[in-house]
Design a protein that fits this description.
Helix 2 packs across helix 3. The protein has one domain. By secondary structure, the protein is mainly alpha-helical. About 80% of the residues lie in helices and about 0% in strands.
Length: about 100
């Protein structure tokens, strides 16, 4: 049973990385194409990759904390991004 959990974890991590890198790649392309939402796809890609890379997750959390001291518009934007981030984490059960 323990081996089965490890196998599921590996498969899940593999799909998270594929999804993360795909979103990141499409997001970069989307910055130049008007019909793709580049910034949204980049944020989603970073979110999925943060599940596999702990240092990326730490960086994201630091940026959310830094947002408290920035310009009011930037702070509001980061609060919105944080809400989306938390919803995606709860939907996809990213830890």
């Amino acid at each position: 049973m323990n081996n089965e959990k490890k196998q599921k974890g590996r498969v899940r991590r593999f799909f998270e990385q594929i999804l993360g890198w795909s979103c990141l790649f499409l997001g970069i392309i989307g910055l130049f194409l008007p019909f793709l939402q580049g910034v949204v796809l980049i944020l989603m890609g970073v979110l999925f990759l943060s599940a596999s890379y702990p240092s990326l997750k730490i960086w994201i959390e630091k940026e959310f904390k830094k947002g408290e001291t920035r310009h009011p518009r930037v702070r509001d934007f980061l609060k919105g991004v944080e809400k989306v981030y938390l919803k995606l984490v709860s939907v996809f059960e990213i830890r």
